[in-house]
Design goal:
alpha/beta; 2 domains; 6-stranded antiparallel β-sheet; Immunoglobulin-like
Amino acid sequence: MNGAMKALTHPTGVVDVISEPKASGVLRHGPVRVADDGRHLEHEDGSPFLWLADTWWHGFTERISQREFGELAGTRAQQGFSVVQIVAGLYPETIPLGPEGRSTSGWVWEEDFSAPNVLWFDEADRRIRELLKHDLIPCIVGAWAYYVRVMGTTRLLRHWRELIARWGAYPVVWCLAGEPPSTWKLEHGDDNAADSLGRSIVPLLDLDEAAVAAQLAGLNEVARGVRELEPFGRPITIHSIPARQPWEFLEDDRLVDFWLLQTGHQGVRSLAPSVGALHEALAHEPTKPVINGESCYEGIAGSSWQETQRFLFWTHMLSGAAGHSYGAHGIWAFNTPDLPGLFSGLAPTWKDAAEFPGAAQLGVGRRLLLELPWHAFKPHPEWVEPHFSEKDLCLPYAAGVENGPRLFYFPGHGLIGDQLSLAQVRLRELGDRRWRGQIIDPRTGSPGPDLVIESDDDGTALLQSGYRGWAPLPSWEDWLLLLRPV
């Protein structure tokens, strides 16, 4: 459709869409959709799409300039990211017309809430195009869920009509809402906002069951409306909260195309729940692609550093995830010295958080996978012994193609202890062939020397070397092993 015009009909009118010249890089393959296997995403031309997102919830605010926005997008693209998760003005942990939600053009809606603010959207257009220029697909969250109660379903659907009209022809992904059941307490204020919008939000969760039920009912009404409105076939998802799965909040699973989990920010305490939630979502019917859209922001509460980020990425990808989302505490809300933190607590400035090492190391992971038929990989924990289980998630993970490449992840400290040692790692189901192996550093992607692995008569091989029977892993840290049949 290069340079052509296409008319899209809709019950309420006709939209003329004029395409721009095809982009270079990944976007030349077209918009993203769910692949036929129901497990991963692909481009319009059938080429697989590997989701690696950075989280910029407040990315339209004035705390990051247009120039800085473009520079950060360029950095993340260079590191290997493919998606940016961003909220369309109705942000988490903010109140309507609050200073933390302002862009240089004001707020996303007019101050009397009579209509969307055209100037805000004109400014946001430039940022959406900046992401696309860097081959970063925008995952656009319509609103944080409590805005269903703040604004009502009629205004939110008007909000969605603006989003779809502005950006639906681009290769975007839609997210219906963030944290569907999280209902912040609403109190009447003294401002002059229209109707029930003369309210403020108290930074405490409202656990009233009636409020939660009303919010979810409104959200489902909005979800049905978005599905009816959206004419471009862009994928739709919904965000979740820790310890709850996203389908619990929908009246019909068909309202979304894939699952976007949130699994907790409590550092090591969130690792087991994260892996467990991912496996539960992968087993849920009907089959849909699964991505952990939010877990353990790097640096949050002074924890969840790069080793946590690597663990989450590799355990999820070798378990069957369609991709992974990264976040840095300080970037999601674009914190500055003047805004050191919202209700989630104090954060480093976004410029400092942009330098955290976990982002680059996950980019290394995505680039490594792109060199393999990752979209055909299936989890095969039985290919290595010992392997992870609910009792011990720090034992090895394995995935790959039956007669092709196999990738193993060894979490840090996983194979040391009273009853385990590195000398006990046995590779299984190798057949009667030889394999070429490489130990790969997940921090840099650098491969070590080639290993030649020959299976025993039973199709297994002990992964070991000469020094005291230890395997050829360079240290107690986490490592990857890539096997290819010879």
